[in-house]
């Protein structure tokens, strides 16, 4: 049984780290030697874009493995990664966000979800066996409505910590790891509830900061970390359009070693990627570039899609342009400061959340996306040059529109989100195998 009696939550107020520890149930895993601390996984952001996709010839410098587009759904001939039947874990309510962190100190990333439920908000912990097996571990009550959860080593001790955004009233709950599955809890009040959170270094020092999307999606604000697990509200930056949490990312678009903001939003009938310059002090002000990428903004991802530059962008939109009906993934390959080459691929859709992970371990990031209506999870193999092959879809009901990939010896795809009371755990298989 999970015992949460020791869980301590300070009410919103100055962060108190003197609270008692929160312990995960003892398990053999706790006694295994810890591996070296791993760096905080960050798939942040990105950038933006170029030309109207339809008018933009593919100009990626390296040749693609295949000619343009093609992707329209299931295929039995592909050899890339496929998803098996999902296992379902009841959450008692919808999860609003998930984060991967080594909760028990065994060197394997575990899962923490921020969820709603009959008993109120909670952080729900699952221990990961490294093979895709998830064991429910603990449910830590959050005395407010959780809105987002992120993981990072916020006090620089080599242990993964968690931050949970909350509303009613707005606050940031911090769970600092003490090792062996124990956490110290604290909270700090915010002026505006965060609809989503990102972990990044935005003010030039070595400690991790947070970027929060204001409820309503019209502005971001920086929450500057002090390296000890406490936060100070930084600058507020208005966004060029109302932005969904899945449609914002951080990339260094102008290559000045400072992260910039990339957002995908709707402007009139266009979906536009806007790159906004970061000033290195936590403010994002000057528009660097604005690109129409189609119609119907869905999601924006930043990652090394072609080569090792790391600042390419992938925008998911409902259609390439007026009169077009198929959802499109617009890939923007970063060729230099503010230089992008665009190419589009048809994808199954419409899509909700998306993430990038090398599911088949061939060294190239693959796109994992959830249908906006929670009816499917799609896997689109990437070729490492900005190209994508045919999508493979696993359909089921009530999946939720959020996806995460749990890495380990076997990558595992997780689907959850509003509209679903469950966590769905998909094994990754080889198609046709
Ligand atoms: Ca672990
Ligand atoms: Ca830590
Ligand atoms: Ca920059
Ligand atoms: Ca791959």
From TrEMBL:
Keywords: Signal. This is VCBS repeat-containing protein. It comes from the Bacteria. It comes from Nannocystis bainbridge. InterPro entries: FG-GAP, Integrin_alpha_N. The keyword Cytoplasm does not apply. Gene3D superfamilies: Integrin alpha, N-terminal. Pfam families: FG-GAP_3.
